[in-house]
Automatic annotation (TrEMBL):
Domain of life of the native organism: Bacteria
Protein name in the entry: Uncharacterized protein
Amino acid sequence: MGPNRFQLSGPSLEALKEKAKAEYGPDVRIVRAEEVTVGGLAGFLAKHHYEILVEVPDRSAPTTDPLPLVAPQLRGLSALLAEADSAEAELHGVELPSVSTSSKRFDELIRGLESVAEPVPRAPAPAADPVHVLSGPGDFIAVVGPRDDALVPAAAMAKALDVEFFHTGGALPPVVGRHIANRQDAMAARAKGVEASVPVVVAFGVGRPGEAFALSHGLRALGADQIWAAVDATRKHEDTVSWVEALEAVLPFFAVAGFSRGDTSTPETINALGLPVRWWEDGQPVQQPLG
């Protein structure tokens, strides 16, 4: 095995460096840093935090490659499942599992970075589609919501991506052949997506809003490349805030997948979550945000 990689987030780079050393020891290396800006308008009222990717050497099998990167499309299904078995076993002894190396977010890893001098800015999304869904072969997209709220936007995303079906996970009822219960299932689904040249869409249920944090570990184990918060505009805003904030403490959301905006007179309250918003109607994304 090569070095283990973990992702941390926090309010400042100095705090993150101290946290990394405290949790993973003095040999930990910071290999990437990003300043993340969420929400706001033209830089005003935006939320800022930092994310770093750290590497912890595997003393049992040292490697000469400081950042080995293995893409799922270059490996067979059996190898992926073997790795999944090993990762599943580690979940019982490691507080934070390894970050998925197949994520598009790690395309530009900086080799040999020993300390953080300046944060690496996050690459902007295409101007024509600032809140875009990943669409590459094997890209793993998780749509997360309470009760069955994740089903509507997950189905819409699958349709827009021309994917035959989406999977379920978490507290949502199992669907034979399409339910993802653990990391091994996730890796198998990702491998099949690579073989079929399509992304993987998963509707992940977190039960009632108050149960969201308890299921965050299971969601984190899936190693999703992109996580969307499924938000029904007709839900009480306070209930939505409770589960979104509970999960964001563990896993950062990419954006909000909003729906049912035509069924309420105040759909703009969804913007108060401080996340980019994409609305979905009739199985299609809606470009324009609400003011």
